[in-house]
Prior knowledge:
The chain is an alpha+beta fold. Helices cover 18% and strands 33% of the residues.
Amino acid sequence: MPARESAQPPAPTPRPVTTEHHGRQRVDEYDWMRDKDSAEVIALLEAENAYTEARTAHLAGLREQIFAEIKDRTLETDLSVPTRVRGHWYYGRSFEGREYGASCRVPVVDPDDWTPPRPAEDAAPDQPALPGEQVLLDLDALADGHDFFSLGGSAISLDDRLLAYSVDVVGDERYTVRVKDLTTGELLDDEITGVMGGATWSPSGDDFYYTTVDDSWRPDKVWRHRIGTAQEDDELVLHEPDGRYWVGVGRTRSNRFLMIAVGSKITSEYHLLDTREPERGFWCFQPRIEGLEYSLEHAVIGGVDRLLVLHNGTGPDFELGLAAVEPTAPDAWTPLLAHDDAVRLEDVDAFAGHLVVHQRSNGLTQVRILELDDAGPNGLGDDYLVEFDDEVYTVGSGGTPEFTQPTVRVGYTTMRTPSSVFDYHVPTRELRLLKQAPVLGGYDRDLYEEHRLWATSRDGEQVPISLVCRTDAPRPLPLHLYGYGAYEISIDPSFSIARLSVLDRGGAFAIAHVRGGGELGRRWYDDGKLDRKQHTFDDFAAAARHLVDAGWTTADRLVGEGGSAGGLLIGAVANQAPEAFAGLVAAVPFVDNLTTMLDASLPLTVTEYDEWGDPASDAAVYETIAAYAPYDNVAAQRYPRILAETSLNDTRVLYVEPAKWVARLRERAVDPDVLLRIEMTAGHGGVSGRYQAWKDRAFTLAWILDVLGLAEHPRT
């Protein structure tokens, strides 16, 4: 008998704990598994890994093959397109055989030339890719001796002399900041621990700002650290006591203002420090008003310093307004781009000669240019989109840090087009391709087709689906369907080298853009949260059924996948629509959300009330969550094959949630086929290092291919 049939799953002992909320009793047989320091719990998790390995031993060869395919298609020694910051071009390098690579810079030769230099892409690790190259951080050296490594962020002081960078070597997203003197290459004595993310330099370079978290992992404090002093002497700049709010700190592109953002999921507040008047200290632009969201950017329009205010005060899809550089009430924000319920304004970047607006319409992202013209209305000139021709695509702007630069760095991808980097020269309106991510082995995008489909959900709502497959693949196709649906996060179409291992074996990949995300504007998000969360699950099930009804696939060759809040989606549809799928993958899944949301002491719970509700204080919210919570609704029915994946050090979704869920599925389901895989040294984002990440993905894809019936299928 094959090992996958003879292996027996772990059978943890039920130890019921009964709680009562709003007059309703709730029994939890496996809450004891949350004791991470228990030898019994660790032994159980290790037994789960051993069982999963035994059950998937027949896929070991396929995993190695997929890993090799990813590796062989990837240009391992490569570098990013250089980005200009003041007097240097900055870029990242990767090297064959190395997990992490290096961060580098070279001096700007001609200050009037904004064309990125073209380094030698095949330069050896010990050779410069460009003349004058300086290695800022050797990430492999920093990671040496650690099972996990993550660079949280890095920032250069405005005199280009000091580099502040943060690292996490555990996976719990609590970072340590160090400072490197780039003139000597030496580390300073400064060491700041327990930091959330990175650091923001003051213009003088004598100090920087950072945030720390409270016991519930909420960023609640902003600190100022003066170089050469101890952390215990740092100045507390702002403390936010309200558990629904978090804080962050940054600097405007113009470098004139430092900004502290305070926000919940539905309310904003900004504090600014004018570096020309530092003695004034931080001042509040507009105190929080419940439900009013806004963000700020500094611009110079018509020779006058102004604040751009992107806000939802006049409609849910946001308006772009202008305000003076002083505390200003909403009724004094002058409309620059009025609210339009067909266009969701998401962000704005200000430059000396133009504004860049990030927006989406009809489910697609857009980059919009507003040229500045002193003679135009409100100081604006032409208003237009940077346009592309594909049916389904993702476009955005980033890596454009200099206020005076005439170019906009644009990123573009589709499900069959590798990630492409362009520079858009605003004065001439020329779009120039700088680099397209190489795909080795003779990749031809014309061998693939991509489509935008629409499914009808239970309430009649039309749900977009993005799909890609080979043009020569016969239908119906084995199909891998991905979904998320929370926090207004949009899962936009993109290219994946790893995905080719499914497509080239005759499978298809699709994204269901379900409610709870932001693909169709703020209403799409609002219609998939709180008491309307059920729409998210209905949409995913409707997408699966539409793909079957339209002849793209069959239910017995359809695998669904989602991670984190998307793992909650997977857990819910497992209970509600098990017949629609052959298999389901739940990565770091939020499947015991009722328990988590009932416990205000857990990481992120209180800040999540605006997303899910507060079941501890509101009986109606309790009933709503209890009606769909995956762990609470496991039933005596047949389920698809399930693979749950988690990480021991995850602070966002604790490992105990999928561990309990798997135990209850095995206890209650009819003939369950459920696997749990735990990374014992990783966090919410999984393992670190690109080769380890490839191996991790190869494991998941091999399992998916097995369920799809493609494990033995040759590549086309």
